[in-house]
Amino acid sequence: MVDLTVVILTKNEEKNLRKCVESFRGIVKRFVIVDSFSSDGTERLCDELNKELQVIDSRLDFYQNKFVDHATQFNWGLNHTSITTEWTMRMDADEELMEDLVEEIEAKLHNINMDINGVILRRRVYFMGRWIKHGGRYPELLLRIFRTGKARCEQKIMDEHLVLLEGQTVDFKNDLIDNNTKDLDWWTNKHNWYSNREVLDHQVTIANDLQDGDLLETGKSSKQAKMKRMVKNKGYYGLPKFYRAHLYFIYRYYIKLGFLDGPEGRIYHFLQAYWYRFLVDAKLYECEKFDKKMIAQGDLKA
Predict the structure, then answer these.
(1) Longest dimension (CA), the chain
(2) In the predicted model, what is the mean pLDDT of residues 79-101?
(3) E strands, the chain, where?
(4) Which one of 13, 14, 152, 216 is CB 3.0 to 4.6 Å from 41, fit for a cystine?
(5) Does this model's pTM top 0.90?
(6) Would the pLDDT of 292 be above 90?
């Protein structure tokens, strides 16, 4: 058993949560669920999972807190759920660990040098059951495991990352999977919600004259996360509205070989790299034309 607590944020994740928890194959001491008042069977499922985990001397604790944004919700979980294990991990309910990553965590985590406070993991995205391997989407390098008390989630409306408050990081070599099993209608609703948050985040960034790396530079995260933010804010947002979505899709689908991901990849790269980015620009244009500010969104109503 690894001295590890896994924190998972949920809102109507009855379809995804079991496979997330079961992917750890019984190596984790504790799971902490921070729920945004789900209206499906998430709470009932958590009670079932807790009873199953207690048989192997693990447990799952269920908490509820009103959602403001992911960063606030995750940091609330760190502050209010009495985490006492040496290590803490952030997971999304639609993510799961590959078996070789489970073995790597079990074998390595307790032997890490004391100057290492964070672990960078590799994430692969699945869409409609297919691994999106191209288009610059793999591997996504994320700080996900940290010594308890040594990291926080940066307070950002969108595109938030964990950052270490002190110490160094180490890279693990195996993958976790983002594999949401909900349908395309849910996916597009979620990205419409994301687009509102992204517009508000951009407006706040401009209003406060924040620089690309300000939030990430206060602590250590993955170098890839810092580079992506710099390119997005200083590169992408410096291009003309609407045209940049077209250029980004061309880059992802043709230059970065997204077309090799088959029909699922065609749908994913078009919707995520073109439709979503164009929608953000359309909402930015609307706000500028009518001199309005995007309001905070709350949780996803889906």
Answers:
(1) 60
(2) 98
(3) 2-10, 28-35, 59-64, 87-92, 95-97, 116-127, 130-131, 140-147, 151-153, 162-164, 168-178
(4) 14
(5) yes
(6) yes
Last residue of a domain, one of 129, 149, 178: 178
Which of 178, 204, 225 delimits the end of a domain?
A: 178
- Kindly state whether residues 172 and 246 are assigned to the same domain: no
From the number of C-beta atoms within 10 Å of its C-beta (0-12, 13-18, 19+), residue 250 rates as middle
Neighbours of 48 (CB within 10 A): 12
How crowded is residue 154: how many other Cβ atoms within 10 Å of its Cβ? 19
Look up the domain containing 285 and give its range.
184-289
Domain count within the chain: 2
Residues in CB range of 254: below 8 A, 6 or more apart: none
CATH code of the domain containing 47: 3.90.550.10
Percent of the chain with pLDDT over 90: 84
Tell me the pLDDT tens digit for each residue of 56-81. Answer: 999 999 999 999 999 999 999 999 99
85 and 200 inside one domain: no
Residue 158 covered by a domain: yes
Do 29 and 162 fall into the same domain? yes
Pair (174, 229) in one structural domain: no
Please indicate, yes or no, whether residues 148 and 198 belong to a single structural domain of this protein.
Answer: no
SS3 state at 174 = strand
- pLDDT single digits (tens) 127-145: 999 999 999 999 999 999 9
With b for 16 or more beta-carbon neighbours within 10 A and e for fewer, the 87-125 pattern comes to bbbbbbbbbbbeeebbebbbeebeebeeeebbbbbbbbb
Phi-psi region of 231 (alpha: psi -120 to 50; beta: other; left: phi over 0): alpha
- Report the distance separating Cα 263 and Cα 113, nearest Å: 45
Residue 139 token pair = 């591997």
